[in-house]
Design goal:
alpha+beta; five-stranded antiparallel sheet; two-stranded antiparallel ribbon
Amino acid sequence: MDIEEFYDADPRRRRSAEVELGTEWTDKHGLRYEVVWVEDTGELYTMREPAGPQYEDPFGGIHVDIKSDAEVPGMTVGVVAEIATRDELDRILDGWEAAEPEPDSTAWLIERLHQTGVSTFSENAPD
């Protein structure tokens, strides 16, 4: 979904404070992501730059019409996890600033979530 659809789907999102956790995360394909946490919902979400006709995330989810050669317009938003509090967020993602500029930094994010026992939503996760 795009960012407007994301905010429209839950009114708490639009009025909530957000914590930006970097805008230069990348996956193994070199696609760029922004990572943001929404205080009122506890949602950790990503905004991904446009991708080509087929895209598989590291959790096995397939995105985009594989029959189309057209690029998907705009940023795509997906909730990847729920983290209840800011203190939990800070504990769970401690060290993200050093991890973000590394190649395939979303792999660090995924591994960190798994190591700390946070369930992820495979259909929306970055690769």
